[in-house]
Write a structure and sequence with these properties.
Layout lengths: L9 H9 L9 E4 L4 E3 L13 E4 L2 H6 L3 E2 L12
Length: 80
């Protein structure tokens, strides 16, 4: 059973837009329209905010049905 995760806070959204590597490890974000989850520093174009959900860990993102981004590889190494 998947848990419903929240949309990003303004600070989390700003980290995603800024591709802030200092936030890597604090959360990952899932994009509902693609089914992919990314690090905040992912070089891919940010998704529309209404399609983004925040996951505290890569494990939580996977359990919600998302798969890891092939660009930023948020699960390598899977430390959290």
């Amino acid at each position: 059973m998947s848990t419903s995760y929240p949309p990003p806070t303004p600070q989390q959204w700003q980290a995603i837009v800024d591709r802030d590597a200092s936030e890597d490890g604090n959360f990952v974000y899932g994009v509902r329209s693609t089914g992919i989850f990314c690090r905040p520093s992912c070089p891919s174009r940010p998704a529309r905010p209404e399609n983004v959900v925040i996951h505290p860990t890569t494990k939580a993102a996977r359990e919600s049905g998302f798969r890891a981004c092939l660009r930023c590889r948020p699960a390598e190494p899977e430390l959290w």
